[in-house]
Design a protein that fits this description.
Layout: H1 2-7, H2 16-44, H3 50-77, H4 82-90, H5 97-135
Helix pairs in contact: 3-5
């Protein structure tokens, strides 16, 4: 979440070092989360369904990644015209100086939307911890 919040502060004149720091924070966060999450999921899987569980875990991870790309494109492109957004994301056009500010605002909104989803997911995850402690 911290990396997304840093990315949301970037502008057209931001230093490349800020991007590198945000990327490093995101990489460390992912490196800490994904192995622990995979281990937790596989730990509760029945022994005779490790393959199915692993397949579902990867499927949901891929669906989540594609959903996050779609959400980012939807939110970011809402700040500029539809045709301009398609041309930019496909790579057949570049932003004009007049639309750069609007597009950056759209990117900031996309990062904030992703952060909001991560906060929701963290809250739901924490609620499971409290349920497990009560039932134990």
């Amino acid at each position: 979440m911290l990396a997304l919040l840093i990315y949301a502060q970037l502008g057209a004149q931001s230093a490349l070092a800020v991007v590198v720091v945000a990327y490093a924070i995101g990489a460390v966060g992912s490196g800490c989360f994904f192995p622990a999450n995979n281990s937790a999921v596989m730990k509760v899987a029945p022994g005779n369904s490790f393959g199915v569980t692993s397949g579902l875990l990867r499927t949901f991870a891929n669906v989540g990644m594609v959903f996050s790309f779609a959400l980012a494109i939807l939110v970011a492109s809402n700040s500029i015209g539809r045709q301009a957004a398609f041309a930019i994301f496909v790579g057949t056009s570049t932003l004009s100086p007049t639309t750069i500010g609007a597009f950056i605002t759209g990117l900031h909104a996309a990062f904030y939307a992703s952060t909001s989803l991560m906060i929701l997911a963290a809250g739901l995850s924490m609620s499971r911890v409290h349920l497990r402690k009560r039932s134990a």
